[in-house]
Amino acid sequence: xxIEAMLAENARAVTVVLESLLPIHDDPEAxxxxxxxxxxxxxxxxxxxxLVASSASLFDVTKSFALRVAAALEMVHCYSLIHDDxxxxxxxxxxxxxxxxxxxxxxxTAILAGDAxxxxxxxxLADSETxxxxxxxxxxxxxxxxxxxxxxxxxxxxxxxMAERHTLEMEEVTRLQRMKTGALIAFACEAGAVLGKASxxxxxxxxxxxxxxxxxxxxxxxxxxxxGDEEEIGKKTGKDAAAGKAxxxxxxxxxxxxxxxxxxxxxxxxxxxxxxxxxxPLRSLAWYVVNRSH
Length: 294
Ligand code: GRG
Description:
By secondary structure, this protein is an all-alpha fold. It has helices at residues 3-21, 30-40, 47-57, 63-85, 101-104, 107-126, 134-148, 153-162, 170-195, 200-227, 230-233, 239-243, 248-252, 254-270, 280-291, and strands at residues 94-95, 98-99. Strands 1-2 form a two-stranded antiparallel ribbon.
């Protein structure tokens, strides 16, 4: 099976779980659930859920456990997209080829839908259906909170907002992106090891893979912002240049940024050497990330 087919198959499985975790009901607050479903069930690439499922499969983790963690992580990712699109942040009208949440509903509903997706994610991780061992569940909650919070994604977003006001150097952009994009990707890769109670060396190898993959993912995103097709990507392009933001592409230029992304992927794949054939989906995903057109 090629990587696109593997991603699509995993995306279908995660979407089924998301559907069951965000059930429609007809209480007066149904509009909130509708907005949560609108964003979480829309057609993203589901890269992070794929990383959770693929890392979990290295350690023979029960499939339903991995899918619940994958769904919880996708909820956090979707919350970040909803809030990132708000007028106070990127002020975007298009996401995943659809009107953004605040355009489809309204700003207040979009804020609440993001908040509720974030909290639902932790509720799912803490539930006994996610793992039989409460220490594993607690570890997942702790790691996702760290990855999503001030020392991870939200902190990175703060740095990103500040970057509109002063030019960043390469080291600062790298730190920002490790926090904003890299932290959730690192959680996704480590989650399989946590669920499978894997050895420290296996966990470290996955984190090293995630480290390089996260940066390469962001460089690919920066390149798409410059060269990508708006319709295919499903969101507005040319935003970084318009905002005068320093990115890997503005700092290195298109060709060097692309070369850097390939170098990072070669390095990422080398970190998987300790795993046998079973890590093939993670290897294929790494190359997909830098060759994607959306
Ligand atoms: C507002 C709390 C808060 C955080 C925002 C992740 C983020 C931080 C903002 C999203 C905007 C952005 C371009 C972030 C860089 C990471 C990234 C490339 C996100 C898009 O992820 P994909 O490509 O999207 O996996 P899909 O739609 O496929 O899930």
